[in-house]
Amino acid sequence: MNEPALTIHPRTASIVPSAGADALKAAEQAYRSLLADEPKHFRALCGLAAVRSQLGAEAEARELLTQAVGLARPLAEDQLALGSAFRRIKDLDGARRHLEAAVALDRDHAEPRIQLANLLLAAGDVQNAIVNYQAALDIDLNNAEVHQSLGLAFQRLQQFQAAIRHHEKALAIKPRFALAHISLGDAYRHLVRHDEAIAEYRRALAINPQLTDAYINLGGTLHLTGRREEAIQIYQAALIANPNLADAHYNLGTRRRSSTTSAPLSCARHTRPTTISATSCRSAGDFLRQSAIIRPRSA
Fold it and tell me: What is the model's pTM?
């Protein structure tokens, strides 16, 4: 009989970070104050457009950007600013147009290529994203973030060996790059190299015990390899990091339905003589360290 499906998160590139409402309101006030003194301030118009879009005022955001476009100089930095602003109002065609203009105006720096590649990857144009990431690396070979993003692009094409090469290069440049450890683990998991995937997820959590994707993917991979009691410990630690993490609750429920043992889920078993309860620990990192689930990378 097939077991219920587990939730496992793929790593994806995030285009735009989101801010809280208070931060957005403070930014709006600052931009409006600046524009009151200088109504044709290009950067303030771009920034206010992005803020108003995030606050739901799409029509006003577009009007502000129309004003900014009319003030833009034929310089890469202005086209980059417009590309970022159009991206924030979710006008991907407009963002692509201005980012391509920035690339054409500046062939000597990697940033226009990187921003264009990030946009293309998020929009699903993976092949052109790869072309632009590789062009960025021709300019800035030791950019760990670009290697990481290029690895994600190759994973989208299911070219996992190529992905592994770039995630490993990212980690060679930036050893404590937790997201690269998760992505490397994902590539190993797709190649059914489960032990290596588990090791990478643990390394990510050793660096940052708050990474919920690492918990979900580690727990899911442990479950798939039959190490279900360890998986329970991981899901419990995930719920310390984020008590509302739906996938951890779901996976614990899946474990309960598929288990043939009577071990209670509130207290994970361990190979040590004593059992460690997730609820007795102050943080996810504390629980993981006491459980000996996270281990430093060997030299």
Answer: 0.77
- The answer to the question of residue 12 being in a domain is no
* Distance in angstroms (rounded) separating the CA atoms of residues 238 and 240: 5
Task: Look at residue 100 and tell me if it is in a domain.
Answer: no
Percentages of the chain per state (helix, strand, coil), in multiples of 5: 70, 0, 30
Hey, what are 103's tokens? 């690339």
DSSP 162-196: HHHHHHHHHHHH-TT-HHHHHHHHHHHHHTT-HHH
Taking only Cα atoms into account, the Rg of the chain, rounded to an integer number of angstroms, comes to 23
Q: For residue 144, count other CB atoms closer than 10 A to its CB.
A: 18
Number of structural domains found in the chain: 1
Using the predicted structure, report yes or no on whether residue 23 has a pLDDT greater than 80: yes
- Domain with residue 288: its CATH number is 1.25.40
* Confidence band for 63, pLDDT divided at 50, 70 and 90: very high
**For range 245-255, the mean pLDDT:** 76
CA distances from 278 to 59, 76, 238 (A): 48, 52, 10
Q: Pick from 235, 246, 188, 180: which is nearest to 208 by CA?
A: 180
Single-letter residue type at 19: A
Q: d(Cα 42, Cα 133) in Å, to the nearest integer? A: 28
Burial class (CB within 10 angstroms; exposed 0-12, middle 13-18, buried 19+) of 266: exposed
In a domain? residue 192: no
Does residue 217 form part of some domain? yes
Give the pLDDT of residue 245. Answer: 81
The two structure tokens encoding residue 212: 């919920």
What single-letter amino acid sits at 162? A
Question: Is pLDDT at 287 greater than 70 in this prediction?
Answer: no
Kindly tell me the number of DSSP H helices and DSSP E strands found in the chain.
Answer: 15, 0
* CA gap 226, 277 in Å, rounded: 21
| Residue ranges making up the domain that contains 221 | 207-299
Quickly count: other Cβ atoms within 10 Å of residue 299's Cβ: 3
Q: What are phi and psi of 235, to 5 degrees?
A: -65, -35
